[in-house]
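Technical annex, item 7. During the second reporting period the consortium partners agreed on a shared format for inverse folding records so that results from different sites could be compared directly. Each record opens with the tokenized structure and is followed by the designed sequence. A conforming record, contributed by the partner at site C, is shown below for reference.
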């Protein structure tokens, strides 16, 4: 955590306007009214529009869930977004990723024993983070494993979670109770 207290406090239900109540309804129902969402209720119009894109990246992406989670973990780690890391450690475990696979998101594309696909996904994430561009060499290798829509979803997943990491870090969103830390 870069900030030990929120710059923008998470709002509780009695502070939400009608748009925030509508946006939060699915999270309340699912028991996932996390601090990130309660923080976003400070700007409910933004939250509502952002959630359309976020839902595509997280639930409608053409990338397999494990592949998507690997790149989300990597960009969260590269951005030093502890909140993002912890939330997606839990998501990754839910998709059956082992702790060794999760830790490979910390050590990156040079991790010994990675599959070619995982190495390329991590390499592409590193390149997007460093230069906002996937090199021709990495792109050409990726095309052996992924179709056009998957490649587009890859870029947008990294971009979405880079944005989310910036917001979490800057707003000072504090970890939800029980969230795993960097020590995984």
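Designed sequence (site C submission):
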């Amino acid at each position: 955590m870069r900030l030990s207290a929120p710059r923008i406090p998470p709002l509780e239900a009695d502070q939400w306007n009608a748009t925030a109540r509508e946006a939060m309804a699915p999270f309340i129902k699912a028991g996932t009214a996390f601090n990130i969402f309660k923080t976003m209720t400070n700007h409910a119009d933004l939250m509502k529009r952002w959630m359309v894109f976020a839902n595509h990246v997280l639930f409608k992406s053409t990338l397999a869930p494990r592949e998507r989670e690997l790149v989300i973990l990597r960009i969260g780690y590269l951005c030093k977004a502890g909140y993002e890391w912890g939330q997606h450690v839990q998501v990754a475990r839910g998709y059956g990723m082992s702790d060794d696979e999760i830790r490979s998101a910390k050590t990156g594309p040079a991790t010994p024993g990675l599959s070619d696909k995982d190495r390329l996904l991590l390499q592409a994430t590193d390149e997007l983070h460093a230069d906002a561009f996937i090199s021709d060499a990495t792109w050409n290798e990726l095309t052996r494993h992924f179709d056009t829509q998957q490649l587009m979803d890859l870029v947008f997943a990294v971009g979405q979670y880079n944005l989310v990491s910036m917001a979490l870090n800057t707003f000072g969103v504090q970890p939800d109770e029980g969230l795993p830390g960097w020590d995984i």
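The two ends are 15 Å apart (CA to CA). Residues 13-59 form one domain. All partners now use this format for quarterly exchanges.
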